Amino acid sequence: MCMTTDKVKVMKLEDLPLQIGKEVQLNGQSIAVFRLSNGDVRAVSNRCPHKNGPLAEGIVSGEFVFCPLHDWKISLVTGEVQKPDDGCIQTYETEIIDGFVYIGGV
């Protein structure tokens, strides 16, 4: 996970529905942001390592997103693709401050 003190405000928390991804563009990078059923907010690269599927359009289950193209299961915590598939995506630090979602490490 990228760690940095630089954080960027990306949206109001209330604009991020539970278990539905949103795509944001930061510094030329497409990032998928998710609010999990437990209230945690996660941010990852918006491209599946398999065929570049848009992960913001994927189905969220627990702390995982399923790629909408070929159903690869990817951890929103570690970025690791679950076996038997193989790969990894970039994860980003998230923080909620005064009702806004911030992303760091971009």
Q: Which features would summarize this protein structure in a list?
A:
106 residues; mainly beta; Rieske Iron-sulfur Protein; six-stranded antiparallel beta sheet; 9 strands
Major sheet strand order: 1-9-8-4-3-2
Tell me what portion of residues adopts beta-strand conformation: 35-45%
Distance from first to last alpha carbon: 11 Å
What average pLDDT do the residues reach? 92
Question: Architecture in CATH?
Answer: 3-layer Sandwich
Helix-strand topology string:
EEEEEEEEE
Q: Helix fraction?
A: under 10%
CATH class: Mainly Beta
Specify the biggest β-sheet.
6 strands, antiparallel
Number of helices: 0
Apparent shape: globular
* Overall radius of gyration: 13 Å
Tally of domains? 1
Keywords: 2Fe-2S, Iron, Iron-sulfur, Metal-binding, Nitrate assimilation, Oxidoreductase
Protein name: Nitrite reductase small subunit NirD
Pfam families: Rieske (PF00355)
Domain Rieske: 8-103
Give the SSE map.
Elements: E1 7-12, E2 22-26, E3 29-35, E4 41-45, E5 59-61, E6 64-66, E7 73-75, E8 91-97, E9 100-104
Antiparallel strand pairs: 1-9, 2-3, 3-4, 4-8, 5-6, 6-7, 8-9
Organism: Paenibacillus motobuensis
Pfam families: Rieske (PF00355)
InterPro entries: Rieske-like_NirD (IPR012748), Rieske_2Fe-2S (IPR017941), Rieske_2Fe-2S_sf (IPR036922)
